[in-house]
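Limitations

Structures in this collection are predictions, not experimental determinations, and the ligand pose is part of the prediction. Treat each record accordingly. The example that follows, with IPE as the small molecule, is included so readers can see exactly what is and is not provided: the inputs are given verbatim, and the output is the predicted complex.
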Amino acid sequence: MRTNPQSTAAPLETATPARHGRVTASALTSEDPVLRAAYRLCRRTTRVHDPAIHAIIQLAPAVLRPACWALWAAASVLDDLADQPDVEPALRAARVEAWTKALAHDLAVGASTDPVRNALVDTAARWRLDLSSLHGAMATTREDARGLRFTDWAQWRTWCNQGLVPWVEQVRHLFDQAGAPMPLRLDRQADYRRFIDGAQLTDTLTDLSIDLAQGHLLVPREAMESFPGAEADLTRRRWTPAVAALTADLTALARRWLTGPAMTRGMHPGAAIVLDTAAALMRLQLDAVDAAGPTLLARPPRPSAAARLRVLLPARLRTALAWNLTPLTVPAARPAAAVVKASDPGPTADDTALRPPPPHRDGARPPHIAAAKMPDHVAIIMDGNGRWAQQRGLVRQDGHRVGAAAAHEVIHGALEIGLRHLTLYAFSTENWKRDPEEVATILEMIHHELVEGPLRDLDIRKRWSGRPDRLPQDLVDALVREERRTRNRTGLTLTMCIDYSGRDEITRTAAALAQAASDGDVVPFLVGRDDVARHLPHPDMPDVDLLWRTGNEQRTSDFLPWHAAYAELYFTPDFWPDVDRRDLWQAITKYSRRQRRYGAATPTQNTTD
Ligand code: IPE
Ligand code: IPE
Ligand code: MG
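Predicted complex:
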């Protein structure tokens, strides 16, 4: 229903949804030549340090790559500082610490004279990264500079996780911010941990020669015990049958960890391909370790370029296709000081700096609607996610994921046009009839949206309407927290209907009235409409002026029967994931031309849409 944006190479300073491949890294880094050079250096550093990581980053949407380079280059610089073979361990540790402290200073100032830190500071400001979670990882790198040995796998794992997981989490946050989340279902967390372990063990084996040269032996003693003599042989850097057997055992273990069951199920298809490809490349790396023999103790083995390309080429095609499904969001650059503030929220305080909604990717602006013609309250039945996905050969969950991006768009449009109330039908009491996987994805996405979604610091007061007794407790807690956190905001009131049914709402209202009557607070035969309205779960919710349903269905599916009793109805054929803010503006424009009579006589002039 919409033309593909042609002009997405927008300046960095404007928040812009973008499509994969249409925004180049240099467009992203704006007119500032210093910053552009800094990102280029980060890219080079990543490529030189780790070509496989560089190749994986190339699978990410173009808008996210500079941020990934900046993060990876920073991790590489720290690694290098910790690994300088000709420098005293204490001095190496001091250098890592000095770099870390300089980063803290640069983040507060909002710029850096060091190019890698400069790019990282820009990335943190732009994507609202809270880099404080990296402190632990950087401290681990410092320890790394002092020499290492592990007794058992648990100790090894703790060290690995401290060093790697915070960086991976930053990348996940980037994808989330861009609207291509990598959510991890609770029941998939164990797979995720195994995946991280597999990545770490692959690294440990690949870098064996470098580590040994520096006096580190990162293979835990517990693993070496089953191969008598292996530890001593490795320390002396001698390739013996014991070392060969140990290595084969460890590559097999790493392969098992990397081939865990579907950790990526339920993720955005693009994100899932990136992770699956990373696992495939690591398995190739393990093949190279297996094939290396004695040279494993001389230099890090590398798989052949041809083998890597066999994995990467199809992945490039598939990711390009997958990212094209989703308009991604490039947030506007913001001052670093605001980031520092946002990274330190109180448990319920709303101390986030509010920002305006990002503009439409083509620069579209809302129409002018006379105040008297503006609806006060628009309610939307966001229908068609499943059919949208099925038409494209995707699973229904993918439709919901892209549907979430459409919801962001429409909310941005509501803020821009100055709408006071927007109510979205997100999950009905009848939707529990669906496949549990689909239900779980929808509820997890809503949860994720509340906790980390890109709407957090817009001027939106969030409300929730629906049954409280069947939703997961952590979701209910998050909904209540968000209501409390945003209660003093004065912009748009956004009500999300989750496990909602209109009949259920009216039934609860009737029960509340009955209770009031039995308490003597109302007299049954005097009950009027106002009494009913006062006992609704949200008595302050205004009547719906415009009820819009997408997805080519003409029914209201038990949505807001009390509030929408006199609403103007508006049905559109498009599936919800294809909608953007211009469709909301169009709906409001059409509404503004309708005649609302509320039972009065037909006016002389008639307008239809
Ligand atoms: C609406 O899309 C979203 C929810 C009900 C959660 P659907 O999932 O109903 O999509 P269709 O109607 O099957 O296409
Ligand atoms: C209505 O959509 C509920 C939501 C949009 C959340 P459905 O797709 O579930 O509605 P019916 O059952 O087809 O009317
Ligand atoms: Mg439907």
